[in-house]
Prior knowledge:
Layout: H1 8-12, H2 18-40, H3 72-108, H4 110-124, H5 128-139, H6 143-169, H7 173-180, H8 185-221, H9 233-240, H10 249-275
Amino acid sequence: MADIPAAAPRRFRRTHNVYLWFGSSLLGFFIFLAIFGPMLAPYDPTEQDLFALLEGPSATHWLGTDNIGRDIFSRILAGTGYTVSIALSSVLLAGIGGVALGSVAGYFGGKVDRVLSGIIDLLLTVPNIVLAIAIASVAGSSAMGLTIAITASFIPPLARLVRSKVIELKEEDFVAASVTIGMSHWRILLHHVLPNALTVIIIELSLNAGQAVLIGSALGFLGLGVQPPAPEWGTMLGASREFLTVAPHLIMAPGIAISLLVLAFNTFGDGLRDFFDPNLEK
């Protein structure tokens, strides 16, 4: 049984959790754009208009045009799918890998724990962004390479967190009772220990999603992400840096979009943390 408070559904209906409501609403808006953005775009995001180079915002082009005349508003809408899908895919895959490594190391202990913890600790010595850059350089500049790089950079810290939680949980009485009645260790781990760690895992993954957006955008800015003409926001930032002084709107549009998406994930994560906090229960 998971350690989610029994009164969670009631707390969800309480409107004072501003972070959860604001974060989920803003995140839902971005997911909507990720799905329907290309259909809502007023122009083809890759269509060039050589007679409208570096135009500022206007009634025709709401966010202006880039250095080869492409409509920035259309590219932001179409690019939402790239940024959101890469972030969510990376977090999901990192969750699978991190939970698997951390739970096995924490529950079985001994030599298994020493080996896995040694690998995790070694990877933790390398900052996320540095590890992601190294892996993206090897995996290649593509959406797949970007996803692999972000995933690999998130697995070590998540595995460490899950390991600590599992070590704490396996000392609980319900685990000892399960062992006493002859339940297998894998069944105990999968059906009793991990469900009780689910809250911590969900909160951590929701917060990591915002960081995934930043790392993905940074790699795109460095030319290690999705390659042009795909309208990925980090790639758009990188392409616009040389026009910063003459057309600042080029970098402002994707920059603001990235900031809002990170805000959505972070506030949603903060809201989930408050939502699952039993101290909020009156």
